[in-house]
Design goal:
Shape: elongated
Radius of gyration: 21 Å
Number of helices: 7
Order of helices and strands: HHHHHHH
Distance between the termini: 74 Å
CATH architecture of the largest domain: Orthogonal Bundle
CATH topology of the largest domain: Arc Repressor Mutant, subunit A
């Protein structure tokens, strides 16, 4: 059989990809797909097992590779996306009590806990700062 048959994956330089390189590429693409899924569905409950199944990986492999690529676990990334959205909504004048469920947090205390950990202040403090900066 010819090494360069049309069924064999070729790199841009025309050489055959090794199985390991192909697997690494597939895993990297799966991690990107997982991040994209989180970005688009952060308001919904996201469970690691479901996310891993969605991108065709095991939960352990996804966690490890996601952390290697983005520097945080998938769970932490979900929290970061939700908090960023909460910040945007607060800057638009919405109240933290109204924001929690719209950004995927269980309740206001869940939002407050993650918000303070990531931003160094409570949602109310952040909102007050936003209001003060607009008034100046």
């Amino acid at each position: 059989m010819n090494e360069t048959s049309s069924s064999s994956p070729l790199r841009q330089d025309g050489r055959l990809m090794t199985d390991r390189a192909r697997v690494e590429g597939d895993a990297a693409q799966a991690v990107v797909m997982a991040k994209q899924y989180i970005d688009e569905n952060f308001c919904e409950p996201i469970h690691l097992d479901d996310l891993a199944a969605h991108v065709g990986m095991t939960r352990f492999s996804l966690s490890k590779r996601f952390r290697q690529r983005y520097g945080v676990s998938p769970y932490r990334y979900v929290c970061q996306v939700r908090v960023r959205q909460a910040q945007t909504m607060m800057e638009q004048g919405l109240r933290p009590t109204d924001i929690a469920s719209e950004t995927g947090f269980f309740d206001q205390s869940h939002l407050a806990r993650h918000f303070k950990r990531l931003c160094g202040m409570t949602p109310r403090q952040y909102r007050t700062r936003c209001i003060q900066s607009v008034g100046q």
